[in-house]
């Protein structure tokens, strides 16, 4: 056990935990932030995706010791023009079916569009490869990302 | 008159033979200097053991062309990731999405080490024979611009390289212990880094 200091969604949080504990465990079980989902626990499905220093990260695999001192953003704390465009497009196109994977999908989509405002289909495939949707909403996810790109002016 | 012609002919013949002999000797020396020296058999044996380490999945899986391999059987990385401009992946699919810089994750089983990444494309070892790998290791254009001493340092101290000896549960480490590996490397380098023939 060790004193772990995290910065989550702009707030300082302190925990007594094992530095090797996955960030996801701390988010869900110790901090009651359940928007980030547990899927496979092995960094294979993307359901647990958060942002660390603006990069997508699988919180089931990133350890507390690795996340300490860095800017962590979860689905509860996303904000800004790109996030607003993505969340808006998700609603407008009614992307979600069961919804379990969608917080991870949205987090990866925000990372993609933050780096590439006009992604091609190939760019979307390459960036969203690690986010699995058991309901198979991939076509709507792609459409929502393209719609988000329009909203932030990436199509001009 | 006849005697003079005979002497002149003899002199000419002797001079020609001497010249030809000298040329032949030069040619011989030239051939000798251009011939590839016989490689030290001990150094070649050392290389073959070094190659078993470099061609092991722990090293080879990330010395690939565009996407890394995974596991002891070298299957395609799941999820699929691509090299990207900095050898670290693309926008939302980066090596550091999952791989910790502070080491292996015992919970998820995902391996980790500092500067986890694909080796540069120039250092791809995909489908190289032992001989071709050996030659590539000696070529600064294909070894990251490293001298022999740089190579020893890289394989002796780089934490991502050292991960191959402690890859975490469920993964086989490289087949030669690190101290023995460095000794083999020293033997091979000291002998002039000889490579086997194809």
UniProtKB/TrEMBL annotation, chain A:
Q: Where is the 2Fe-2S ferredoxin-type domain?
A: 2-78
Task: Tell me yes or no: is Metal-binding among this UniProt entry's keywords.
Answer: yes
| Residues in the signal sequence | none
Protein keywords: 2Fe-2S, Iron, Iron-sulfur, Metal-binding, Oxidoreductase
InterPro entries attached to this UniProt entry = 2Fe-2S-bd (IPR002888), 2Fe-2S-bd_dom_sf (IPR036884), 2Fe-2S_ferredoxin-like_sf (IPR036010), 2Fe-2S_ferredoxin-type (IPR001041), 2Fe2S_fd_BS (IPR006058), Beta-grasp_dom_sf (IPR012675), Diverse_Oxidoreductases (IPR051452)
Query: Iron among the record's keywords?
Result: yes
Give the PROSITE patterns listed for this entry.
2FE2S_FER_1, 2FE2S_FER_2
From the Swiss-Prot or TrEMBL record, give the protein name: (2Fe-2S)-binding protein
Q: Which PANTHER family match?
A: BLR6218 PROTEIN, OXIDOREDUCTASE WITH IRON-SULFUR SUBUNIT
Q: Which organism is it from?
A: Microbulbifer taiwanensis
Instruction: Tell me the classification of the organism that encodes this protein.
Output: Bacteria, Pseudomonadati, Pseudomonadota, Gammaproteobacteria, Cellvibrionales
Source organism superkingdom: Bacteria
Q: Read off the Gene3D superfamilies from this record.
A: 3.10.20.30, [2Fe-2S]-binding domain
Automatic annotation (TrEMBL), chain B:
User: Which residues are the signal sequence here?
Assistant: 1-24
Protein source organism = Microbulbifer taiwanensis
Q: Does the keyword Signal apply?
A: yes
What is the name attached to this protein's record? Isoquinoline 1-oxidoreductase subunit
Question: Sorted alphabetically, which InterPro entries does this protein's record hold?
Answer: Multihaem_cyt_sf
PROSITE patterns per UniProt: PROKAR_LIPOPROTEIN
Q: Alphabetically list the UniProt keywords.
A: Signal
Q: Output the superkingdom of the source species.
A: Bacteria
């Amino acid at each position: 056990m060790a004193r772990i200091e995290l910065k989550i969604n702009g707030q300082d949080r302190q925990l007594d935990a094992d530095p090797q504990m996955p960030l996801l465990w701390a988010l869900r079980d110790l901090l009651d932030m359940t928007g980030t989902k547990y899927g496979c626990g092995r960094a294979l499905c993307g359901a647990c995706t958060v942002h660390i220093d603006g990069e997508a990260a699988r919180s089931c695999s990133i350890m507390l010791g690795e996340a300490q001192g860095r800017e962590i953003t979860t689905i509860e704390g996303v904000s800004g023009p790109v996030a607003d465009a993505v969340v808006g497009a998700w609603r407008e196109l009614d992307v979600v079916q069961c919804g379990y994977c969608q917080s991870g999908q949205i987090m990866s989509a925000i990372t993609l569009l933050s780096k590439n405002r006009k992604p091609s289909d190939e760019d979307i495939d390459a960036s969203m490869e690690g986010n699995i949707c058991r309901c198979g909403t991939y076509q709507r996810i792609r459409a929502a990302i393209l719609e988000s790109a329009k909203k932030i002016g990436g199509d001009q | 008159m006849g005697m003079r012609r005979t002497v002149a002919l003899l002199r000419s013949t002797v001079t020609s033979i001497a010249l030809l002999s000298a040329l032949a000797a030069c040619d011989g020396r030239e051939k000798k200097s251009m011939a590839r020296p016989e490689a030290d058999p001990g150094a070649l044996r050392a290389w073959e053991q070094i190659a078993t380490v470099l061609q092991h999945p722990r090293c080879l899986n990330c010395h690939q062309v565009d996407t890394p391999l995974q596991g002891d059987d070298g299957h395609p990385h799941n999820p699929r990731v691509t090299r990207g401009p900095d050898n670290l992946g693309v926008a939302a699919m980066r090596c550091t999405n999952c791989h910790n810089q502070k080491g292996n994750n015992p919970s998820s089983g995902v391996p980790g080490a500092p500067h986890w990444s694909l080796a540069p494309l120039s250092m791809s070892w995909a489908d190289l024979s032992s001989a071709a790998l050996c030659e590539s290791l000696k070529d600064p254009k294909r070894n990251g611009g490293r001298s022999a001493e740089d190579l020893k340092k890289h394989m002796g101290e780089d934490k991502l390289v050292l991960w191959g000896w402690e890859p975490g549960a469920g993964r086989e480490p490289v087949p030669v212990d690190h101290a023995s590996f460095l000794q083999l490397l020293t033997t091979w380098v000291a002998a002039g880094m000889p490579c086997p023939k194809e």
